[in-house]
Amino acid sequence: xxxxxxxxxxxxxxxxxxxxxxxxxxxxxxxxxxxxxxxxxxxxxxxxxxxxxxxxxxxxxxxxxxxxxxxxxxxxxxxxxxxxxxxxxxxxxxxxxxxxxxxxxxxxxxxxxxxxxxxxxxxxxxxxx
Length: 129
Known about the structure:
Distance between the termini: 50 Å
Shape: elongated
Helix content: 55-70%
Radius of gyration: 19 Å
């Protein structure tokens, strides 16, 4: 293999490592931000605030398989004591163990990367049950 190809290969690998490191650092920083709900939740239902605060996401949830099944926000996002703005794969696993076990995505890929929970339609849901 020529020197030029080796240098190009090393540069490509270096670039990938830098991007992967930045993504990991960004995820870790986002996890810190995700540690607590931005305002006290109390005993209110999430939709009491989110219909006004995030109307598009609320509407997506209402029209999703989770919304039709009345899977409330707390099931995936937790409560005031264990809130997660972006649920982990372990959150998904508690209700979807077969899908979790049969996951073919690369390790570390969030379930929501392929299955956006707020817009997961009933049609799509039936394909995975």
